[in-house]
Amino acid sequence: MSAIDAQDIAQKILDSMGVPAQIVIESEYPIYLTVNSEDSALMIGKGGETLRAFQAVVNMLYRNKHSDGGYVGVDINGYKKERVEKVQALAQELADKVRDTGDDQHLNPMNAFERRSVHTLLAENPDVVTGSEGEGIDRHVVIKKR
Question: Please, what are the domains in the chain?
Answer without folding.
Answer: 3-77 (3.30.300.20), 81-145 (3.30.1370.50)
